[in-house]
Q: What sequence folds into this?
C-alpha cells in the first residue's frame, strides 16, 4: 500500500480564497483524522470520521472550516474564506481501530503546508 | 479528557550517546496505548514505538526502548547509540479504544556530531 496520500504538499493562497486539501487513506482503514500542526499549538485534532461518518468535529476552529468524506477512499478539508492565521501544516491520518487490544497506531500522510498571505 | 505532557521542549545529545525523553499523561482509564512518533525535517510522522498498557514488559525496537511506569503515568523514550538521523521532533501520544490520538507538544532532539 502507498500509505496515506495527501495533496497538495504545499499550497500558497491569498486571504479570502477557498482552499481544499485532499486525503486518500490507507485501504481498509475505517478511521480518518484531520490534524493541524502549528508551532504555538502543536498537533490539534480538527475532525475525525468512522466509516465515512463524522464523529467529532469539535476541533474545527470556525465555520470557515468544513470536512467531508464521500467514500472510504477520499476526504477533503475545505477552508472558505482562508485567513493568514490558518497557515499551518495539515495532516491526514488513518487507522484501523478495533476492539480493545486490537487497536493500532495512526498512519500519517506527509501533510500539506498551507500558507495564506 | 486525556492530556499528554512533554516537559522538555528541546534536548541535545552527542552522537553515540544515550538520551531519554520524558512523557507523562493523565487518564482514569486502565486499558490504553502509548506511542512515540518521530517527525524529522521532512515532516513525515513516523511511528517509533508503541506500548500496550496491559503489558508490564517495556517495549523495545532496536536502539529505542521505553520505560513505562503505569502507576506514575510516565512513558519515557530512551535512544541508545544516538545517530545524526535521530535528529527530529519526538511526540508522545495516547490512545484509548476508538478515540483519536492525543499528542504532547513535542521535544526537539538534536544529535550533535
A:
Amino acid at each position: 500500500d502507498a500509505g496515506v496520500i495527501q495533496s497538495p504538499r504545499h499550497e500558497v493562497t491569498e486571504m479570502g480564497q477557498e482552499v481544499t486539501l485532499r486525503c486518500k487513506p490507507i485501504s481498509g482503514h475505517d478511521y480518518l483524522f484531520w490534524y493541524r500542526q502549528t508551532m504555538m499549538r502543536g498537533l490539534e485534532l480538527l475532525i475525525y470520521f468512522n466509516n465515512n461518518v463524522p464523529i467529532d468535529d469539535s476541533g474545527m476552529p470556525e465555520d470557515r472550516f468544513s470536512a467531508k468524506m464521500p467514500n472510504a477512499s477520499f476526504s477533503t478539508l475545505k477552508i472558505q474564506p482562508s485567513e493568514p492565521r490558518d497557515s499551518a501544516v495539515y495532516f491526514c491520518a488513518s487507522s484501523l481501530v478495533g476492539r480493545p487490544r486490537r487497536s493500532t497506531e495512526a498512519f500519517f500522510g506527509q501533510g500539506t503546508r498551507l500558507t495564506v498571505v | 479528557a486525556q492530556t499528554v505532557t512533554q516537559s522538555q521542549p528541546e534536548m541535545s545529545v552527542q552522537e553515540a550517546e544515550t538520551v531519554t525523553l520524558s512523557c507523562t499523561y493523565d487518564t482514569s482509564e486502565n486499558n490504553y496505548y502509548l506511542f512515540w512518533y518521530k517527525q524529522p525535517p521532512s515532516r513525515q510522522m513516523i511511528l517509533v514505538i508503541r506500548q500496550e498498557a496491559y503489558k508490564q514488559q517495556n517495549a523495545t525496537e532496536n536502539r529505542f526502548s521505553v520505560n513505562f511506569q503505569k502507576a506514575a503515568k510516565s512513558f519515557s523514550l530512551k535512544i541508545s547509540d544516538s545517530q545524526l538521523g535521530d535528529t527530529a521532533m519526538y511526540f508522545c501520544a495516547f490512545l484509548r479504544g476508538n478515540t483519536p490520538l492525543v499528542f504532547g507538544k513535542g521535544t526537539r532532539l538534536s544529535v550533535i556530531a
Observations:
- The interface with chain B takes residues 31, 33, 42-43, 45, 48, 50, 56, 89, 91, 93, 97-98, 100-101, 103, 105-108, 110-111, 113 of chain A (CB under 8 Å).
- The first strand of chain A starts at residue 5 and ends at 7.
- The mean pLDDT of chain A is 92.
- The CA atoms of residues 38 and 88 of chain A lie 5 Å apart.
